[in-house]
Amino acid sequence: MKLNMVSLGPGDYELITLKALKALQSCDAICIPTKSANNSFEKSMTYKIVKKLMDEFSFEKTIIPMYSPMRFKQEDWQRQVDIIFDSFKLYEDLCFVTLGDSAVYSTVYYLLDIIKEQNRAIYDNCEVIPGVTSFSHASAKVKKPLCVGDSSFIIRPLHKRKVPFTTVYMRPKVGMQTDIIKDKKDIYTFENLNYEGEEILNYKKERVDKYMTLFIDFV
User: How far apart are the C-alpha atoms of 181 and 191, rounded to whole Å?
Assistant: First the structure.
């Protein structure tokens, strides 16, 4: 069994990644969230993106509707997980799709938390496929960088003032010590992502050995 959590990007179907497209083309069925209790996709941007991709690249897949009201309630996420589990009785390879990028305000990790607890085998064989974010797309639209040089940028929800936050540390110098990073709880070191010598460590390295290193201190 293989579960792919596929990010579709910011609304333009041409901004989907090649990896995401290949996952959709090779899977047996696609789970698509809908806010309509009758499982209608009439107003679903997610469905419209998938439909355009299927039309342009000439493939068809079984579509599994997943009623997903934006109530942030455990029972709603559990219902979606139950649909995924039931779908694996019929299919070997499933895609669950989400707008934007799965790492940013997405349902994906609510579902994965439950899946990890209730079926570790599916969780361990799940792949999360990242996508283009709305804010990176907006930046490109107006030809303005989100950060340049030694600047940084912050993502903040407007509805609350004090919130927990994840911190990404980038652009280190080789040889520098990392004691400046005061890790909160769940920090990872990433070296040479997608290149030779890629390494992902679930702790903060005390010294930067490679230029292509980043640290993420997760919420």
Answer: 16
